[in-house]
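Troubleshooting log. The previous structure file for this entry was overwritten by mistake, so regenerating from the original sequence record. Sequence copied from the archived sheet and checked twice against the printout by T.R.
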Amino acid sequence: MATIRVGLVGVGKIARDQHIPVLRASPLFELVACASRHGRVDGIFNFPTVEEMLVGCPLLDAVVICSQPQMHYECARDALLAGKHVFLEKPPCATTAQLDHLAALARAEKRTLYQTWHLRRAPRVDDALRWLAGKKIISGRIAWKEDVRTWHPGQTWIWQAGGYGVFDPGINAISILTKILPEAVFVEKADLAFPSNCDSPITADLVFRTESGAQIPAAFDFLYLGEPAWDIELVTDGGTLKLSFAATVLSIDGKQRDYPPPEDGEYVEYAPLYRRFAELIAEGTSEVDATPFRLVADAFLVGTRRTVAPFKEWAS
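Regenerated output below.
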């Protein structure tokens, strides 16, 4: 298979921490260009906008979009209409209708749309899925807590409408939950705390309910100090499963399960996503699952809203 020539949209923290290193290390891809108003990548073509990148590099095969979610729809639409395959970072778009339209557009243009949930490809997610198969969920809990000042320093877009706030990390937990559960799950309750100077929540306490009636409370916190907590626990009729450290560790009834290392050595978070993107392009198919996205939207629909103290980028 020929090397896939990639243009990158957005040169922020996630691009520099994950996308650029993985692209440059992969034999499947060649990073050719980027589009960013505020960032540059050495050794490739740099453009201020995706429109200029698509015109200036017409031989691109694919576009990777990791800008702020409020911009995702327009960037992905333009790339698909230009005949490019699209890798769409999470959260996928500002609205669920936009994602639906992109999926339809990819089908019409016969191009791949890979709408990613990166933690679904964490090492222990498929193991959890297999262990839960055929078991009855009795209860559960989710704790997804981190310090926004560490993980999103200076990123004001996250507090704007369409920026998700604490659901930017929280949707990762929901994406794992909806993959591993052996039944459907819905948002029953939500308590959302909005800083007085922000349009998105800084904490969220949800209660999910499975189709069979099991309740799974979830605590999302963007002001959590110390080591992050990225944990999902599910109590079943066959024991208790816990995924911790962002689904890199799996325990059953309090005992950690040991697994052999990955075939390609040390786990690199975004490497499995790019392998999957190459597979989808070769197959001529897309992969889009809006379920986690819709559950976040449902939390806004059913949730109560509280106004709390204004958010300050630097805590006093």
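DSSP finds nine helices and 15 strands in the chain. Archived copy saved in two places this time.
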